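note to self — DONT lose this again. spent like an hour looking for the file last time. sequence + predicted structure for the chain T wanted, 178 res
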Amino acid sequence: MCAELTPVIAATTRWLLRAYPAAGSTLDEALAEIQARQAVTVAAWLRYPTSLDAALVTMAGPGGSARLDWTVGADTVLPRGQEFAWRTWVDEALASWAACLLSSPELAARAVAAVAGTEHAAAGSAEFSRLTLPAERDRRAAALLRHPDLTAPVAGLHRDQLLSRLSPEPNPRPAGRT
């Protein structure tokens, strides 16, 4: 994984888990975290497919969680100190794309196939089976994260951009034809 994306992936995963917590045991929390991290990683690799893209988002900053907090109604108490610091690394588009991937197995499979050709995937092995082929225990652990109705407000923020990124390239017109 590209080191530049690590803080963005970690913060966005943390935000998703706070907005849509796992129910149950410590194992459920761990399973939900794995699924959220896999979804955010795939989203990050799609959105920032090269090392240069990743470096640029690190320099410019991903934007923070303010709009996401407002979207889910978690903006009633303004975070301060360390709570504020990690939230500045949240990437709204990645959270939205991850919510789309977690709530749609078809989109998740398409996204994982799309990232197979990125620089990030070429740099090492990555495993996304808990995202694309979750076991029943995984689904129960991340029930809120995977519920399309609950995640719809976040997923809807940037769904169109994700769908555009995953759509096949239009076929170029053959030379000499109008």
